[in-house]
Design a protein that fits this description.
Blueprint lengths: L2 E12 L2 E12 L3 E5 L6 H8 L7 E6 L2 E2 L8 E3 L12 H11 L5 H10 L13 H13 L5 E5 L7 H13 L6 E5 L3 H4 L5 E6 L2 E7 H8 L3 H8 L4
Parallel strand pairs: 3-8, 3-9, 6-7, 7-8
Antiparallel strand pairs: 1-2, 1-4, 4-5, 9-10
Bound molecules: adenosine-5'-triphosphate (ATP).
GO molecular function, one term: ATP hydrolysis activity
InterPro entries: AAA+_ATPase (IPR003593), ABC_transporter-like_ATP-bd (IPR003439), ABC_Transporter_VariousFunc (IPR051782), P-loop_NTPase (IPR027417)
Organism: Acholeplasma brassicae
Length: 233
């Protein structure tokens, strides 16, 4: 089965505000997908639904062929953008925690990523720089042998050199069996990585298409296309 995520008529209201409005999506395996849209378009809300953090909504969400449930977490590797660690925790503690929590957590992969990122095990997480915290988060996500990897702004607020390191690590760990969903505003840096893009606007899917087709139809870069589609009046 090629379909890893299927979403039918998904609507999410926050009180009377519609954050997601009748979203239908089918996401296949083996893809790298850019989830793009302006501030407030519903990207994080959609990610929270797919990852099971938000449970109150209308519509149906299937993960790996089954209606979303607590078990769906076993095929999705995701960390919320705000990570909360106790002040006593060192990297080796969070590694142990992940090993206990997720049977698919690959310790060797984690250690190798931390070596690549030059971060030592005995460091306190709270004392890491923002960039190193981003790298730790990335290593935790990538070290699971999951089917779906979701990144919400993995390169927000990091320097351009680190951006490349992070994007290279994501690319290096991608397999034909897994799908990556990457939400970002840094379109210029990532547009060559995507197989497909999803444009969200005011809670609706404006476009879900192969990147090649989008570029061919517009005759412009993805960044230029994005700016044109979402231009503020
Ligand atoms: N808990 C909440 N209560 C009320 N409104 C919310 C809540 N969470 C999100 N919203 C609203 O829902 C809309 C979609 O928010 P969401 O965070 O999904 O957008 P986004 O596309 O991820 O934005 P950004 O690019 O700025 O991160 C926004 O208008 C936001 O203000």
């Amino acid at each position: 089965m090629n379909e890893l995520i299927k979403i039918e008529a998904l609507t999410k209201n926050y009180q009377r505000f519609k954050a997601l409005d009748g979203v239908n999506l089918q996401i296949e395996k083996g893809k790298i997908i850019g989830l793009l849209g302006p501030n407030g378009s519903g990207k994080t809300t959609l990610i929270k639904v797919i990852t099971g953090l938000l449970k109150q909504y209308d519509g149906k969400v299937y993960i790996d062929g089954k209606l979303i449930s607590y078990d769906s977490k076993s095929v999705i590797s995701y960390l919320p953008d705000q990570l909360y660690f106790d002040s006593w925790m060192k990297i080796k503690d969070v590694k142990r925690y992940f090993k206990d929590m997720f049977s698919d957590f690959n310790v060797d992969k984690f250690d190798s990523l931390m070596t690549t990122f030059k971060i030592e095990d005995r460091k306190y997480i709270k004392k890491l720089s923002k960039g190193n915290q981003e790298k730790l988060q990335l290593a935790l996500i990538l070290s699971r042998e999951a089917k779906i990897y979701i990144f919400d702004e993995p390169i927000g607020g990091v320097d351009p050199a680190l951006r490349d390191t992070i994007l290279n690590a994501i690319m290096a760990h991608h397999t034909p069996e897994s799908t990556i969903i990457l939400s970002t505003h840094q379109i210029y840096d990532v547009e060559n990585l995507f197989d497909q893009v999803i444009f969200l606007k005011e809670g609706k899917v404006l476009l879900h298409e192969d990147l090649d087709k989008v570029l061919e139809a517009s005759g412009k870069s993805l960044l230029e296309t994005f700016k044109e589609v979402f231009r503020y009046v």
